[in-house]
């Protein structure tokens, strides 16, 4: 069924097995999306976003990148400088701030949830792959 997800193992070049959540669309995917986890890992919210993107027709992989070398305890400068790295690599991305929303505003299971900002963000999330992947 579209939007259903499952945990899969992804081998890395050095033999490490990275767990990832994979959500598949029904039929041929419109494209593929790698969904970045939050500092809490691939939690319920990240899995729900993956399923929702699969319902939009995309194959979605959300890797547990922080499980390796205990990365969850520190923030890698690569992640902090992601926008600069994307620019240097010539990759397409969108950055938008919500000044009236708190951290984790998209997560409707948290007190900081902001439905107006969350709805706008979800619209932007859905539009980005359509515009860039088809």
List keywords for this structure.
134 residues; alpha+beta; 2 domains; 32% helix
What does this protein structure show overall?
- The chain has 134 residues and is an alpha+beta fold.
- It has two domains: 1-71, no CATH class; 94-134, no CATH class.
- 32% of the residues lie in helices and 18% in strands.
- It contains four helices and four strands; from the N terminus they run βββαβααα.
- The protein has helices at 44-55, 77-80, 82-89, 115-133, and strands at 5-11, 17-23, 31-34, 58-63.
- The chain has a four-stranded mixed β-sheet with strand order 1-2-4-3.
- Strand 1 (5-11) and strand 2 form a beta hairpin.
- It is globular and about 45 Å long.
- Residues 72-78 have low confidence and may be disordered.
Write the layout of secondary structure elements.
Elements: E1 5-11, E2 17-23, E3 31-34, H1 44-55, E4 58-63, H2 77-80, H3 82-89, H4 115-133
Parallel strand pairs: 3-4
Antiparallel strand pairs: 1-2, 2-4
Gist of the model:
The chain has 134 residues and is of the alpha+beta class. The chain has helices spanning 44-55, 77-80, 82-89, 115-133, and strands at residues 5-11, 17-23, 31-34, 58-63. It contains 4 helices and 4 strands; from the N terminus they run βββαβααα.
* Count of DSSP H/I helices: 4
Strand order of the largest sheet: 1-2-4-3
Overall 3D form: globular
User: Rg, please?
Assistant: 15 Å
Estimate the helix proportion, in percent.
Answer: 25-40%
Distance between the termini: 21 Å
Quaternary structure annotation: single chain
Q: For the residues shown, what is the average pLDDT?
A: 82
* Proportion of residues in extended strands: 15-25%
Number of strands: 4
Overall SS class: alpha+beta
Low-confidence runs (pLDDT<50, min 5 residues)?
72-78
Q: How is the main sheet built? A: 4 strands, mixed
Give the H and E element order. EEEHEHHH
When the domains are counted, the total is 2
């Amino acid at each position: 069924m579209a939007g259903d997800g499952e945990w899969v193992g992804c081998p890395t070049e050095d033999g490490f097995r990275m767990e990832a959540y994979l959500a598949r669309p029904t039929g041929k995917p419109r494209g593929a999306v790698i969904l970045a986890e939050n500092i809490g890992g691939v939690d319920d919210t990240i899995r729900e976003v993956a399923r929702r993107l699969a319902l939009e027709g995309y194959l979605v992989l959300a890797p547990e990148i922080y499980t390796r070398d205990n990365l969850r305890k520190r923030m890698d400068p690569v992640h902090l400088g992601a926008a600069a790295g994307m620019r240097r690599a010539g990759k397409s991305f969108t950055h938008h701030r919500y000044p009236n929303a708190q951290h984790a505003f998209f997560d409707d299971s948290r007190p900081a949830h902001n439905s107006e900002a969350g709805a706008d963000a979800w619209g932007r999330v859905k539009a980005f792959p359509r515009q860039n992947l088809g």
